[in-house]
Amino acid sequence: MELIKLKVKEQASKGSEARLIINSFIDACTKLDTKIIEPLLDEDQYFEEKDKYRFLAFLKGQFDFARSKGFDSTILKYGECGMCVMGHSTYEFYGADGKIRFAYIIEQRDGEVKDIYNCNVSSGWLMK
Predict the structure, then answer these.
(1) Per CATH, which fold does 5-126 belong to?
(2) What pLDDT score was predicted for residue 60?
(3) CA–CA distance, 98 with 74 (Å, rounded to integer)
(4) For residue 1, what are the contacts with CB-CB under 8 A and spacing of at least 6?
(5) What is the DSSP string of 65-111?
(6) Rounded to whole angstroms, how far apart are CA atoms 35 and 111?
């Protein structure tokens, strides 16, 4: 199982800017549009040996897959991780058919966004 960690710009990940990152990432996932989150990602940060553009390509792949199933947006629900970060809250994104399409963990510490992880074992996946 692949765990993808996304790092965000240091200066944009604290305080009120942390909320902007979270809201923008959720907005990107619900609207299936990577252009919403792209400006907030730092070009020289790596996650799971993937640079900003590889991660955006991965995210776009998830969005394209959802579109191939006939969706132009997703619906946000909340769940929890069932494996890597057991019990951590997750953001789950569903198609209009009620099936989960992808899920993420947004890790925060001391009011700062530290990482965003793709979660393949969120509680919504287990309810298939």
Answers:
(1) Nuclear Transport Factor 2; Chain: A, (3.10.450)
(2) 94
(3) 10
(4) 83, 84, 120, 121
(5) HHHHTT-S--EEEEEEBSSTTTT-EEEEEE-TTS-EEEEEEEEEETT
(6) 25
Per residue in 74-120, pLDDT (tens digit) is: 999 999 999 988 999 999 999 999 999 999 998 888 887 777 888 99
Q: In whole angstroms, what separates CA 77 from the centre of its chain?
A: 13
56: enclosing H helix or E strand: helix 52-68
* Dist. CA 26–CA 32, nearest whole Å: 10
In angstroms, the Cα distances linking 90 to 39, 53, 59, 82 are 23, 23, 16, 10
pLDDT in tens, 38-85: 888 777 655 555 778 888 898 999 999 999 999 999 999 999 999 988
What single letter denotes the amino acid at residue 41? L
Length of the chain: 128
Q: If we measure between CA atoms, which residue out of 85, 121, 82, 86 comes closest to residue 103?
A: 121
Q: Where are the domains of the chain?
A: 5-126
CA geometry: angle 43, 18, 82, nearest 5 deg:
90
